[in-house]
Amino acid sequence: MSPAGLAAEQGVERLLVRLPWAGAGIEDLPAVDPADAVSVSLTDATGALGAAGALADRGYLVVGAVAGREAGSWIDVLIPRDVLAGHEGWRAVLAAGGARVLHPSFGPVAAVFGPVLAAHAAVREAPPGGR
User: Fold this and answer.
1) Residue 131 banded pLDDT, cuts 50, 70, 90
2) Burial of 43 (0-12, 13-18, 19+ CB in 10 A)
3) DSSP state of 25
4) N or C: where does the chain have the smaller number of CB atoms within 10 Å of the terminal CB?
5) SS3 at position 13
6) In the chain, what percentage of residues exceed pLDDT 70?
7) Which pLDDT score is estimated for 2?
8) Which residues pair with 19 in a beta bridge?
9) What residues are paired with 77 via a beta bridge?
10) Quick one: which H or E segment has residue 20?
11) In this predicted model, what pLDDT tens digit does every residue of 75-101 receive, in sequence order?
C-alpha cells in the first residue's frame, strides 16, 4: 500500500504522529477504541517488545519495532484524523508538546518515513487471524 493509500485507507484519512520516547510513557498514551485501528510502532526493539502488551491493552494495533532515520527513540502512531481531533486524551498528548503530526501522502514524509509507513501497512493488510 502506498503512503497516499495508507493516508486515505478505506476513506479514512490517517496521520502519522511521532512522539519522543525515553523508555517510559507508554502508559501516557490514551486508550483508543480497537475498532478505530490505530497502529503503533517503536524505533527501539527492546522497548517495543516490552511495551507490546500494554499497547494492545490500550486498544492499539501493535506493529512492533521499526528503525527510523532519526537518532533517539520514537513512538510512531498512525491514527485517523477524526480520532486524533476528537479524542480528549490525544488532544492532551498533542498539547503537552514534543509530538509531530505528519501526513503520509506528502512526498517528504513518505520518503523519510517509508519503512515506518510500510510496516504499518503490512500489519493492516494482514488477515485478521494472522495478527
Assistant:
1) very low
2) buried
3) -
4) C
5) coil
6) 84
7) 58
8) 75
9) 17, 40
10) strand 14-20
11) 999 999 999 989 999 999 888 888 899
